[in-house]
Design brief:
Elements lengths: L2 H19 L6 H27 L6 H14 L9 H23 L4 H21 L9 E2 L6 E3 L2 E4 L4 H24 L1 H18 L4 H27 L1 E2 L6 H14 L4 H18 L2 H4 L6 H15 L7 H10 L4
Antiparallel strand pairs: 1-4, 2-3
Helix pairs in contact: 2-6, 2-8, 2-9, 2-10, 3-4, 3-5, 3-8, 4-5, 4-8, 6-7, 6-8, 7-8, 9-10, 10-12
């Protein structure tokens, strides 16, 4: 194994150990913040499958995220806790079915038309929950009883407690990361990489690319559904903003900021984007300027994209190149 490969594995291992030990070093605010970031990291990984691995720039990921959150609330009994054993697959199934519907039609278009069609599907879902009683309108709806994760009478994870829920989200993040890493090395993943590199050549080689892209779209939708379910359980509340185009744009920025084409970049971008957002919103740091946090965040992202064309994941290589004159 090369030194670069060892470095990648060491980085991932250090990140996992750091996240596992973080609750010992921080309070309730830190645990809540990092839990939210890890949920967004799962969402970013779902979009990385489409954009970074398949070359499909989707602008409707928020719909798949938000629909699962709404499904978690609507499918839960009003007077008792639902079992996570069936509720989680149901929520992921809702997102997967909508991804199948969205992908089956939008994948017949290309380029900017594909982006606009996915945005249109996302806005359709947004207005359904925003303008109808089904989703509670602009006020959103509450999850009064969080689901249970039990075997018989034994509780595996108490989702009402922040610390066990934190480790559940961490386990989900690691599971999604590992499965996508295995997928990238599989024949299916190699086919997606070929489609990303040159779809016309893949067709000439005898591959029917449409089923591969549709399968990737559905898998991405299910992963986004996992993130949406976890977000609904974390806050006990969902509103239409989860499905807005702003959310889709934010997730797209995360994977670009971290570095397209790298699973580690998607996770790193989710952490960087959310922490930058928290930083610029802090009145303790920026005083009254915190009201204009969008300005500072936007300027920082522009600077990162301009100075780091390969994203944050390419920063170590850029530093080595500048300091030691190493080739790319």
């Amino acid at each position: 194994m090369s030194g670069m490969a060892w470095g990648k594995h060491a980085f991932v291992a250090a990140a996992v150990i750091g996240l596992a030990l973080l609750p010992l070093l921080t309070g309730s605010f830190g645990i809540d913040l990092v839990t939210k970031i890890m949920i967004f990291a799962i969402l970013a990984l779902s979009l990385e499958l489409l954009v970074g691995m398949t070359g499909l720039v989707c602008f409707g990921q928020a719909a798949l995220f938000g629909l699962a959150g709404y499904a978690a609330v609507k499918l839960s009994p009003e007077s008792d806790s639902a079992s996570m054993w069936w509720l989680l697959p149901a929520c992921m199934g809702v997102s997967g079915l909508y991804a199948l519907f969205m992908g089956a039609l939008s994948l017949r278009t290309r380029g900017v038309y594909f982006i606009m069609v996915t945005l249109a599907f996302a806005q359709m879902a947004y207005y359904v929950v925003h303008d109808t009683p089904l989703g509670g309108g602009t006020d959103g709806i509450y999850l009064y009883f969080k689901p249970t994760l039990t075997i018989g009478s034994f509780t595996l994870v108490d989702l009402d407690k922040p610390l066990p829920f934190y480790y559940l989200v961490l386990a989900c993040l690691l599971g999604v990361f590992a499965k996508l890493a295995l997928l990238a090395r599989s024949r299916f993943g190699r086919a997606l990489a070929g489609i990303h590199a040159n779809e016309q050549r893949m067709r000439a080689a005898g591959y029917s690319t449409y089923p591969y892209k549709l399968a990737a779209f559905v898998v991405s939708g299910c992963i986004a559904g996992l993130a949406g379910f976890l977000f609904a359980v974390k806050d006990g509340f969902v509103n239409p903003e989860l499905l807005s185009w702003h959310q889709s744009g934010a997730v797209l920025i995360m994977i670009i900021l971290g570095g397209l084409g790298h699973l580690r970049g998607a996770v790193l971008g989710a952490f960087a984007f959310t922490l930058l957002q928290e930083l610029f919103q802090s009145e303790a740091v920026f005083g009254s300027f915190a009201k204009h946090w969008h300005l500072g965040l936007g300027a920082t992202i522009i600077a990162c994209v301009a100075l780091l064309p390969n994203g944050l994941i390419g920063l170590p290589a850029l530093v080595r190149q500048r300091l030691f004159g190493e080739s790319k």
